[in-house]
Every structure is written in C-alpha cells, then in structure tokens.
Amino acid sequence: MACTIAIDGPAAAGKGTISKAVAAHFGFAHLDTGLLYRAVGRRVLDGVPPVEAARALRAEDLAADDLRTQEVAQAASEVAVIPEVRAALVDFQRAFARRSGGAVLDGRDIGTIICPEAEVKLFVTASAEVRAQRRFAELTEKGTETDYATVLADVRDRDARDMGRADAPLKPAADAVQIDTSELSIDEAVAEAIAVVNSAK
Question: What is the mean pLDDT of residues 31-39?
Fold first, then answer.
C-alpha cells in the first residue's frame, strides 16, 4: 500500500533515524524536511537573504556536505520562524508527499500543516535531557568542541523557538500516534513505528 507517512518531533528525538528505517522497510521515498531549512540556512550564512534563498532552493542544494554542522543548524532554526520562508518550501514538500510510490516525510509540521491528510502520522519525542545527551555524543564523535550543558541549553532554546513560533508551531497532530524514545533502543523505536503503519493499512 503506497501512502504518505508524516513523522514529526523535536530535535534529536530520533525521527530521522526512524523515518529512514520506515521508508526502507516499506520501499517508500524519504524526505528529511529539516534539510530544506538547513540548505536555506547555509545560503543565508553565505549572505543570501532568507526568503530569496528559500524561493531559489534546488534539489541539489540538499546534497551539500556541510548541512549537519551546528552553525547551519542554528541558522536553519532562525530562518524556520520566517513565515515567507516556510511558505516557499511548502509546495516542494507537498509535491514530494504525493509521489506515487509512497513517501515518508519527517520534520516539525508535516502532520499538522504540510500533509494533514497523511494516512499515518507519528510524533516522535524524548526528554530534553536524553536528546541533549544524544546530540552531545554525536557532536563529540565528530570532533566538535562543546559540553553537555551547552548542548542541553541549545536543545531547550530550539524547542522554545519551534513550539513558540506563530507560524506552524511544533506540536503533535490531533490524530498522531506518539512514540517516546527516551527509554527505547533504535530497533525498538523502529519496530514500534512499523507496527503503527501496519495497523493503519
């Protein structure tokens, strides 16, 4: 069954890992919509105005190899609160969601704004402390100089921005199934997500 699966949640909750695994399991295309904002943020760091960067975004911009840096993540979070930027990226996301072979989109407003008609909606979350620990381990592994307290503060600031913005705030869709990954292994979280999709068929 080809369908659209919307997976939302805060930073470092595991939604990207779960989304990729679910897409691979069902043979669906996958779009990490956060990459769209990171690509816009990258262009803004290069001096391009945010709205102009969003309107000129191309698929190849998503392949840049520096989109996962902390600096780009910060820029992405800042441009994501601009309504005109979000509006410019909506069509890109909706077109992807309508692919004939099925699609999994992960982000922060997929089930509420981008694809409210998605057949399956998940909201993947975890405590701020657990998410900060995961992000800290990830950054340390990459050789980034930081400390846990700074990362935790960044996670909480990001949550406040994402949940508090007037346009498309981060929140679960009314009909989304919530998965808290705080105490789950990756395999357990993926299995739970796949079970939700199967039960919706």
Answer: 93
pTM of structure: 0.87
Cα dist. 193→2, 105, 116, 179 in Å? Answer: 16, 13, 18, 8
Helices (H), 27-182: 34-45, 50-55, 70-79, 83-97, 128-141, 148-164
Alpha-carbon span 149 to 133, nearest angstrom:
10
Whichever domain contains 114, its CATH number is: 3.40.50.300
Instruction: Please give the torsion angle defined by the CA atoms of residues 128, 131, 136 and 138, in that order, rounded to the nearest 10 degrees.
Output: -170
- Full domain range(s) for residue 128: 4-200
